[in-house]
Amino acid sequence: MKLIFEKSKAGRGCDILPSCDVPVVELDDNLKRQKELRLPEMSETDISRHYTELMKRTFGVNDGFYPLGSCTMKYNPKINDEIAKLPGFSNIHPLQSISTVQGCLEVMKKAEEYLCEITGMDGISFQPAAGAHGEFTGLLLIRAYHQARKDEKRNKIIVPDSAHGTNPASAAMAGFTVINIASTKDGYVDLEELKKVVGEDTAGFMLTNPNTMGLFDKNILEITEIIHKAGGLNYYDGANLNAIMGIARPGDMGFDVVHLNLHKTFSTPHGGGGPGSGPVGCKENLIKFLPLPRVEEEDGVYKLILEKEESIGRVKGFYGNFLIVVRALTYILTLGGNGLKYASENAVLNANYMMHKLKDIYKMSFPGPCMHEFVMTIEDLKKEKGVTALDIAKALLDYGIHPPTMYFPLNVHEALMLEPTETESKETLDEVVEIFKKVYEEAMSNPQSLHQSPKKTPIGRPDEVTAARNPVLRYHF
């Protein structure tokens, strides 16, 4: 397939614009580009065909099974998009009069109230643009809390080795020193290791629960109490909330700060279909540090709080990605409290069903039951047949399904992490289980074949080493 620049023809275009009906204002030369922007020149027909061809090569949750672990790639109900497209939500401007967007402010306030109820928090900011941005914001709250108490010695954030990679990165960006601790052989936080590193310099502890192995930590109350007794705060990475919403709340587990991924748990477009949204919630004693503006209601009128002395300030322009909040609220109102609980229960059921069906063929890293996801290790298969987790993932592409997460979590060698989500039917899971079995049989009987997979996709097996060492990231004119 040719790049759009390769299809470009000088002088070709498709713009038909009316004459300008307002005075033309020319920018000063120092504000203008020194070179013309090099954009492709194409007819509308060619543009339409180009992007249609790209679309056909793109795999999404609407195309088939998408078990990307820890990312909750579940189906997004179309009603969410329909509500977000209503003119009263989509045709507004962040600088227009507050009196003209009362409905939008009510959406933000209602979403905050419901998400506080779901998480056990007392206040939420919708400013962060995505999950990692939410982590960074939450850590700024923790830093502000200690600084306000003149407790400057607290500069360490403890992170387990099973954490998402963004956790230590966010902590470092927020100015903390990261302390990694090992997990137990069962996949949980090692309490003895935690006790060794916690102390007067502990600012906080970051944890995903259930964790990236799909395990709910049975010692969670003891873990958060250890941190609190040391004077630190507990941060909850909400990436895996899809397993527990309506069942357990981070606030009840002893967490002080939480970020949510609306683009995962609350069924809004994800990744390239974004933008994302990573709201941050906190307990009452941290609300004064939240980014502004925030919405408050008084006598049925909604207003924006624009200034508060102890706020950490803005972390994004205006109010965050508002239409993602609209979609999330639509999802919450559609399902209701019982529906959210039912969704989590089905996510856990689907993961356990698939794990049970595969456990006699693939080696599970940790014995069940799991929560919303589970981790398999291909380490033995690699030793016996030379087949890696990457080979398995590539082979799955030929069967029209998206491969699971590879080589994560880092404490599992040759890992494949599967999260089937609650929106997949039993029939789909059964079909996928059979595909995994076929791939395993092929690995045992003809391992060389898997080294050449995929064979049926538009692009075959790339040279991974060359791609990593000599990436081609832009078009050279």
Automatic annotation (TrEMBL):
This is Probable glycine dehydrogenase (decarboxylating) subunit 2. It comes from the Bacteria. One of its GO terms (biological process) is glycine decarboxylation via glycine cleavage system. GO terms for molecular function: glycine binding; glycine dehydrogenase (decarboxylating) activity; pyridoxal phosphate binding. GO terms for cellular component: cytosol; glycine cleavage complex. It catalyses: N(6)-[(R)-lipoyl]-L-lysyl-[glycine-cleavage complex H protein] + glycine + H(+) = N(6)-[(R)-S(8)-aminomethyldihydrolipoyl]-L-lysyl-[glycine-cleavage complex H protein] + CO2. Residues 446-465 are annotated as: Disordered. It comes from Anaerocolumna aminovalerica. Belongs to the GcvP family. C-terminal subunit subfamily. Its EC number is 1.4.4.2. Keywords: Oxidoreductase, Pyridoxal phosphate. It is an enzyme of class 1 (oxidoreductase). InterPro entries: GcvPB (IPR023012), GDC-P_C (IPR049316), GDC_P (IPR020581), PyrdxlP-dep_Trfase (IPR015424), PyrdxlP-dep_Trfase_major (IPR015421), PyrdxlP-dep_Trfase_small (IPR015422). Residues 343-445 form the Glycine dehydrogenase C-terminal domain. PANTHER family: GLYCINE DEHYDROGENASE (DECARBOXYLATING), MITOCHONDRIAL, GLYCINE DEHYDROGENASE, DECARBOXYLATING. The modification N6-(pyridoxal phosphate)lysine is found at residue 264. SUPFAM superfamilies: PLP-dependent transferases (SSF53383). The glycine cleavage system catalyzes the degradation of glycine. The P protein binds the alpha-amino group of glycine through its pyridoxal phosphate cofactor; CO(2) is released and the remaining methylamine moiety is then transferred to the lipoamide cofactor of the H protein. Its cofactor is pyridoxal 5'-phosphate.
